[in-house]
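A quick aside before the break. I want you to see a complete sequence-to-structure record at least once, exactly as it would be stored in a machine-readable document. Don't worry about memorizing anything.
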Amino acid sequence: MKAAVVCANEDVRYMEYQEPSPGPGEVKVKVAMSGICGSDVPRVLHNGVHFYPIVLGHEFSGDVVEVGEGVTRVKPKDRVSGAPLLPCMECEDCQRGNYSLCKHYSFIGSREQGSNADYVVLPEKNAVVFDKSIPYEQGAMFEPSTVALHGLFQNDYQGGEYVAVLGGGTIGMFTMQWARIFGAKRVVVFDISRERLELARRLGADETIDTTQEGFLAQAMELTGGRGYGYVFETAGQAPTMQTAFSLAANKAHVCFIGTPHVDLAFTPAMWENMNRKEFKLTGSWMSYSAPFPGREWELTAHYFATGQLKFDAGLIYKKMPMSQAQEAFQMFKEPGLVKGKVLLVNEG
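That is the input. The structure line, written in C-alpha cells, reads:
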C-alpha cells in the first residue's frame, strides 16, 4: 500500500509501505480521510515522534474491508471512525475505567501505524460505526468531538449556566456545541480570528468576543450581568487564554483546561487570588475515554452526528489535500496563524 511515512524530522515521504492484515479481534479499514491533529505537528516539525520511520494519523474515517477471527460486532462495508487509544486494560487506572490515564498504553498514529495510509488495522472495540448519511469529512472529526465532550464530563458540566469557551479551534467549536446540546443558558466563544468567530455563530454560539479588542473582558462580564461564567473551558492551550479563564470565572465556577500549553505558564498573585477568592474548581482533561471502552463520548458523538444536532460546517476544514501531499501539508504549519481549521489528507480512488 501507499502511506505518508515520517522518515526524519520535516521529512514525510509518500511511499510503498507494508500493508497491515487484521489479526484475531481486529478490523482492517480502508482510510478515506485522515486529519492532521495539533499533536501531529511537533511530531513532524520538532523531532516529536517516538521512532523513525512512523506513519502518523489518528483522526480518520473509512470503510471496513476485512475482519479478523472472532469479530462479530463490525462487518465489512461498515463506515467507521477509530478510537486511537490502546490501553492495557489491566492497570489500576484501566480497571477503574480511566483509560486515558493508563501508563502502559499504546496509540494508533504515534506508537503504532496510523491512518495516514491506504489502510489501518485496529481492534474491533476501537472501531466506531457511524451512519452512512454522515460524510467522511465529518467522520474524521470524531476524535476532536470526543475530546471536547470528555472535557464537559471532567468539568462536572450541567446546563442552566453561562458558558465561556476560550479558543475557536476545532475542539472549541465542539465544546461550544456540546454545551448547548446539554442545556447551557448562553454560550460565548472567544477567539482572535474573525473567521473563526463567524464560524462559531453559524454553529450556534449565542455570542462571540474578539479578544484582540480593547475592553473585551468588560464586554464578556456584561453579558452575564457582571456575575461571570459558571463553566469555563480553555481549548487553545495558550497562556493568555488560560489566564483569561481565571478572570471570566464566576464565584464557585467550574474551570477546565482542555488545551495543552507548549510554553511556560505563569500567573501573577492577583490572577491566582481569583481562584482563592472565587473558590472555583479547576481541572484538566486528557483525551476522551470512559467505561465501557471507548466510552459514551464516542457513542454520543455518533448519535448526535446522525441526528444533526452536533453540526458540521465546511468552515471547520481549512484544506483538503491528497495523501500524497502530506509533506506539503505539514509545511503549512510552519507559518504561524496560516492554518485555521482542520487539514484533511484524502485517499483518492
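Two observations worth writing down. The longest strand covers residues 26-36. Residues 24 and 68 are 5 Å apart (CA to CA). We'll return to this after the break.
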